[in-house]
Amino acid sequence: MGPDPVDPDRWHRLSDIFHRALEQETDRRATFLDDACRGDPSLREEVESLLAYHERSDGLLDTPTHLVSPPTEIGRAHV
How many degrees, rounded to 5, is the angle at CA 77 between CA 74 and CA 65? Predict the structure, then answer.
């Protein structure tokens, strides 16, 4: 059995907070997240996880999926 499906309302909220957090200066994000995720520590954790991934991925999450080429090689296997 796979992971639990994400509630569409929660996903919308998560996505909204994530994108608004990206608009904040890095040193102001924690304060923004304190307010935006007030009372929902798991939401904040999810947003922070997305932000950390975004920082490591050079903005890949901002790229529309139709502009991202799938990998042609995974490890030693060619796809």
Answer: 35
